[in-house]
Amino acid sequence: MEKLRIEYETDSALMARAKALSGAADDAAARLYEGGLDFTGWVNYAARFPEAELSRIEKTAAEIAGKCDALVVIGIGGSYLGARAALSFIDREDSKSPGVWPEAFFAGFNLSGTYHQRLLRELRNRELCVIVISKSGGTLEPSAAFAVFKGLLIEKYGREEACRRIYAVTDAKSGKLKAEADQNGYESFVLPSDIGGRYSVLSPVGLLPIAAAGIDIRQMLAGAAGAEAPELRAFAKEFACVRAALEQEKVVETFAYFDPSVEDFAGWAQQLFGESEGKDGRGALPVAVSFSRDLHSLGQFFQDGRQIFYETMLFVENPTLDITIQNEDAADVSGRSYSEFNRAVLEGVTRAHRAAQIPIIRVLIPQNSAYAFGQLVYVFELCCAVTGLLMGVNPFDQPGVEAYKKGMLEYLAAAK
Ligand code: PA5
């Protein structure tokens, strides 16, 4: 199985500063692996995922596939970004029996009536199931979407059958969703209390919707468990040291992806790093950018503008799907493949941006497989936790997120 690789295109002084953090990174990693820190239940979780729970997820996924052709996945932040990233990233040729699994639609990550009305219109006449995911069970955005889609299920199938088409992932004990699931008998799964939302993609939060879309979650877990191999653990550590050194001099980290299949992974990484590191006045703002697209819109700024950023590039080395162009009317492109052109973009932009002294980290992803996705997620999670600890922030809380919720709820109470 091919492995993820990470390359550093930076100056030697930066790599020396990163190397100087090596001992502290070992200490941080030891704190993660040896326990004692709150919210580290995700560490090594893939390797010890309970078999009975895994089988129940797969059985439920097959049941969902038997009932519907459209699956509405409701959640926000860490409760949906990981599943979305996996579904966009993994090539269905790597999936089980493509074609028999439902199409997934996401809801509850905004409060747009336009978005949800369009979704309702699109799905009204499809065979539907709903997976609702909320650790707290009380977040407004998914609660509103759940009310809407539960209403649609009741209208289409009646209350009893609607309850058989609702699946919940939530806390083991508390919250409105937990109480409702118990009362109505929804098939339910637990997000362990020591795993935070943004570290939860390899828990039932991610695994249930991913399996229900026909992706081989055992392969995904195998990729992540493989990340426990010393080589990949070392990758995560070095990645963390370089990022921690860069955080001292740059205020933005761009996540540049070269393939739309990686766009949602970049969105997941934005949350992981932004919510974990952006606190106490620290952190580099993570910004996802699409290449080649944004080289034709922001390329001028990258090359020549204010040098406040470094780049983490996300490149798939051997995509399973490719096109070799054959058209004698187009001699400039004929006989060449998209993957060859895309590699040229990677190498060209690396060369140009290095000439402008921009520090570059290149994450080279072997292919669009479930196994590679598992590796990628786990290396990023380890890297993020170690970087946060090196920076002296708590990478597992998100106190700042509450501020907007408080303002929104105050506004709603006053406006009622
Ligand atoms: O990473 C996190 O903890 C957050 O993004 C949460 O996942 C998000 O706020 C949703 O919360 P909940 O699952 O409680 O609805």
Structure description:
There is one protein chain. With 416 residues, this protein is of the alpha/beta class. Helix content is 49%, strand content 14%. The protein contains 16 helices and ten strands. The strands form two sheets. Strands 1-10-9-7-8 form a five-stranded mixed sheet, sandwiched between helices. The chain has a five-stranded parallel sheet with strand order 3-2-4-5-6, with helices on both faces. 5-phosphoarabinonic acid is lined by residues 76-79, 134-136, 139, 142, 196-198, 275, 398.
Structure keywords:
single chain; 416 residues; alpha/beta; 5-stranded parallel sheet; binds 5-phosphoarabinonic acid
Care to give the gist of this entry?
The chain has 16 helices and ten strands. The protein has helices at residues 12-19, 22-33, 51-67, 81-89, 113-123, 140-157, 159-164, 176-184, 204-212, 217-226, 230-247, 263-277, 299-304, 338-355, 370-391, 401-415, and strands spanning 5-9, 70-74, 103-107, 128-134, 166-170, 187-190, 252-257, 285-290, 309-316, 360-365.
